[in-house]
Amino acid sequence: MKIIVRIDVMLARRKMLLKELAEEVGISVTNLSLLKTGKAKGVRFETLASICKALDCQPGDLLEYAEE
């Protein structure tokens, strides 16, 4: 089982930089980068909700399930 994180796609669609998103959400660029690259072990629903609000999207736009 693998969860693919598509934050980079939404950032490109919104023409927003990772740094701008980090500032708006209130987390460090490092932590957001770990999430973006799929290296994070998890994400809080509160953080996910803040990212969705900042990018004007749904959680399904950011996360995708794929079988390995």
Automatic annotation (TrEMBL):
Coiled coil: none annotated. InterPro entries: Cro/C1-type_HTH (IPR001387), Lambda_DNA-bd_dom_sf (IPR010982). PANTHER family: DNA-BINDING PROTEIN, DNA-BINDING PROTEIN-RELATED. One of its GO terms (molecular function) is DNA binding. Residues 13-62 form the HTH cro/C1-type domain. It holds the Pfam family HTH_26. This is Transcriptional regulator.
